[in-house]
Amino acid sequence: MPVDEDSPLSTRGEQSVEPRRGIGRVPLYLGAASLFLLLIGLALPRGWEREMHKVGLEMASPFLSVWDRTRKFWEDFELGTKTLTEIQTELKQLRVRNAELAMQNSYLSHLQEENDRLREMLSFRQNSSFRLLSCRVISRDPSNWWSNIYVDIGWGDESRLSSDLPVVTPRGVVGKTGIVARNLTQIILITNENCKISAISEVSKDQGLVVGAGTSADNKPYARMIYLPRNAQVAAGERVLTSGLGGVFPAGLYVGSITQVLPLEASRAFGLYREATVEPGVDLTQLSEMFVVLPGK
Prior knowledge:
Blueprint: H1 8-24, H2 26-43, H3 47-80, H4 84-127, E1 131-140, E2 148-151, E3 166-169, E4 172-180, E5 185-189, E6 196-201, E7 207-215, E8 221-228, E9 239-242, E10 254-262, E11 274-280, E12 289-294
Organism: Methylacidimicrobium cyclopophantes
Domain Rod shape-determining protein MreC beta-barrel core: 137-293
Keywords: Cell shape, Membrane, Transmembrane, Transmembrane helix
C-alpha cells in the first residue's frame, strides 16, 4: 500500500534510518582521521618527529596512568575478596605443615642426641681399662623411680655377670647390679639407700661412704657422704670419686659433686663425723645405655 510522504509513518521511518547511517560512518571517520595524521607525520620535517612523539606521550600519559591505577585496583580487589572459607582452609594447611615440620625437627634432634650419646659410649669403652658389658634400660618401676631399674642382659648373656658389680656411664657411677636373671638384671641406683660406695673427695682427699638418700625436699635425687672426719676440709663444689676400698667399685670412678657440707651436730653420728650431700654425676632421669664393669681386665 502506498504511503504518503507527509504521513507520520513516513517521518518515523526516516528518523530511525538516519542514526543507523551516522553510526555506520564512525569507522570511516576514524580511518580518515588516522590517514590524515599519518600524512601529516610524513609531510613534517624530521626534526618535528621528536616533538610529535613528545606531544603524543603527553596526551596519552593521563590515560595510561588511569589504566594502571584501575588495573591495580582490580588486582587488590580480587585479592581482598577471598572468602572466609578459603582463608580458613589455608590456615589449616599451614598448621598441619607446621606440625609436620615440628615432628621432623624433634625426630632429627632425637637422632642427633642418640648419635652423640652412642659416640660418647664408644669412646669411653675404647679408652677404658675395665672389661665393660653394655646394656640398655628396658624397665623402671614408677613406685621406686629413684631406687631400681632393669636392663636387657642376664647371666644367659654373660656368665661372669653377678650381683654387686659396678654400673657406669661415661658421666659417672649409676649404681650396682642387684638380682641377676637369665635375660634381665636389676640395677640398684646410687640414690637407693642400699647402694653404698667407698669414696674420696678429689681435692681435700677426705674419705667417707656415699649412701643413697632418695630425693630432697625439692624432689631432686641425691646421696649422702657420711663418716667424714671431724676435721675434714671438703667443700661445696668438690668432686667425689670412688676410693676402691670397698671391694666393689674400682678406684677413680666419678660419683658426683658436693653440694653442701653439714655442720657437726650431736644428733648426727654423735658429733664424731661430718656429713655432706652429694649430687650424682649421672642424670638419673635420662638413663638409657650403660656399662656393667665385669671382674678381670
